Amino acid sequence: MLTLFLQAQPGGSSSMMLVIMGVMFVGFYFLMIRPQMKKQKQEKNFQDNLKVGTRVVLTSGLHGRIAQVQDDGFVIETLSGKLKFEKAAVSREMTESRFGDKAKTADKPADKKEIETIEEKK
């Protein structure tokens, strides 16, 4: 159908081609580039707002709690000890899907309850 339209206007095909290319670029921008930039901005804001005590899931699948915030990364406390990771290793999507709203707050009262129940068993 496009070939019929272009054949109907001899001499105007080069300007029509520029218009089509412009429409394609605008379409790519709104469908692909802009959503990706928005996602990157959300991820950066999430990583910048993380605080000590927040539960996180890393891109490798490691679960832990932030023990220390440094300029170049985080020290994550896991069951096996403390490990240092880059800020980019913390995944917003996996953390929110795993912990939801609990990831945003440090669950100190829950930890105290766990310690109390362990001490009661002894």
Describe the protein's topology.
Elements: H1 2-8, H2 13-48, E1 55-57, E2 63-69, E3 73-78, E4 81-86, H3 92-99, H4 108-121
Antiparallel strand pairs: 1-2, 2-3, 3-4
Task: Tell me what the structure shows.
It contains four helices and four strands; from the N terminus they run H-H-E-E-E-E-H-H. It has 122 residues and is of the alpha+beta class. Strands 1-2-3-4 form a four-stranded antiparallel beta sheet. A hairpin with a 2-residue loop joins strand 3 and strand 4 (81-86). The longest helix is centred in the first third of the chain and has 36 residues, at 13-48. The chain is elongated and about 65 Å long. The N and C termini lie far apart (81 Å). Residues 107-122 have low confidence and may be disordered.
**Bulk shape:** elongated
**Biggest sheet layout:** 4 strands, antiparallel
Strand order across the largest sheet: 1-2-3-4
Low-confidence stretches: 107-122
| Radius of gyration over all CA atoms, rounded | 26 Å
Offer a quick outline of the entry.
The chain has helices at residues 2-8, 13-48, 92-99, 108-121; strands spanning 55-57, 63-69, 73-78, 81-86. The protein is an alpha+beta fold. The model is unreliable at 107-122 (pLDDT under 50).
